[in-house]
Fold this sequence. Notes:
Oligomer: single chain
Helix content: 40-55%
Largest sheet: 7 strands, mixed
Amino acid sequence: MDAATVQGWCHWTADQVVRVDGLVRDYWVLISAVIGLVIVVRLVTSCFGYYPNRKTVKHIPLDSFKAQPEFTGRKIEFISPRDGKNLGFEYAATDKEVEECVRRCQVAQNEWAKTSFDERRAFLRDLIEAVLVHQDDICEASTRTTGKTTMEGRFGEVGVSLEKARWTLNNGEEWLKTDFRKSPMMFFHRYTRLQYLPMGVIAAIVPWNYPLHNAISPLISALFAGNGCVVKWSEFACYPRAWLLEICRSVLRNRGHNPDLIQFIPGYGDTGAALVSSPGVAKILFIGSPETGRKVMQGACKNLTPVILELGGKDAMIMLDDAEIDFAVQLAVRGSFINCGQNCLSSERTFIHRSIYDKVVQKIVDNMKGWRPGCDYGTMAVEMQLTKVEEVIADSVSRGARILFGSNRGPAGSLYKQPTILGDVRMDMKIMQEEIFGPVMCLVPFDDEEELLRMVNSSKYGLCCSIISRNQARAERLATQIQAGMAVVNEFGFSYMIQDAPFGGVKTSGFGVFNGAEGLRGFCRAHVLHSERFWVPMDLKLPAVLAYPFYDNGHLVIRNALHLLFGWGVGAKARALGGIIKAALNLGQRGKVGGN
Length: 596
């Protein structure tokens, strides 16, 4: 083959590559355009949803809001984690004040339970508008309270709250409407229906990591299901409590409903204990640590109150050998350092295939070198949590782990902690066993799937996991072998944003779910009603063979009837029918009324 031929062949090959590359780009442009069109259509059509008698939502500025004294318990100081400044104070609710809040909520719920789904949708639509009107204030309140960045406030406080309200508004009635069930053949004249009725007062005890969303989320489901809602706020995040309560109650007032339907209670552990042991509480949602979760269960035992427990996780971020590295790096840093690691879904364990380990680690370090405090990462929200994080890092280093990046403290008075990358960690270290709830990425290489699954499933937690791979089928196969309530392929944190699916874990991560149809129904009292499909003569409803006192041989009729109904084969059924006739003709004697 001469040089000219080779050169021509090379030019032709290059042309084909360019052509294919152009087709691929065109393909993705087309796909992106279609996706964009679908989003636009959804946005436009959502504007024409149910919104009768629209009410104007009044803006209540955060800085000018003056809370009225409500409670008389121990003092709660509001300290900003950004600079240590005192933002104010309020008092915790006493046991008697907790009971009074529950009682007032019960009174309001008795009327709210009679509202239609249309009225509840109208409330949710107004609530969505209220959140949008106060979006900037909500982010500022969250930043002052927890030290998170404004970006994290947009997503973690505002975005997920709006999505939950939107999903419930659009789908809630479908999952709570009466469901008809099938009756056995012998009761063909009767029907069975399953109704989802209000329970009463739902108590929610929520943590400090996303204080505003954690309060809004349970009341959305509780109120749409016809319940009242009492939320106990963490003593570390009460700063915006009274302000947000006034916003939510103003939405109820504008629609003519009793604002006592929503109660936000500040307090310490004893306030939560009084709430879970209250006889007026129908169900409890607790989000927090396993240690406190056990105390909640003990308190709920007093009245046998059912509970939902979400007790955190030790989630794994898994990068398989075929992972797209730049994409994987972005997911890894988001997974470990979102909200400064103070997220139940945080990737506290990052497993990377050994063939790409060094390259991934270097890219993660390079990515984080330019991160700015207050913009790319916020502060820890609670000082004792920061102390715990620093202690567990020190323990890991003393046992052989290496700090590959970060771990510096911020200015005095603040709770800034530079995101930290740890290498050479072992599975027997405390940092790989306990939930850390802080800005620490623990890197672990693996060689094969067997080793990976052994390490991932060694945790006592089982909330969620993320798997990154170009091979979707392989990733999904691995996901089913990981002991967790949820799994995400090529994404992080997606399981919470999908409000149509239940959210919950296994093992020490808790039990029960919230979100989705299952979570919404979980705030209902399942009521089964059996009634008549049509009128049937009384003699057919209660044949003589079933009436008291019984015939001596009446049981033989039933014996053959069971063969007729449940036996297999024409012959067997024919013999059973003959047996029924024979037994019916020879029922024997029957007891005498008033006999001994």
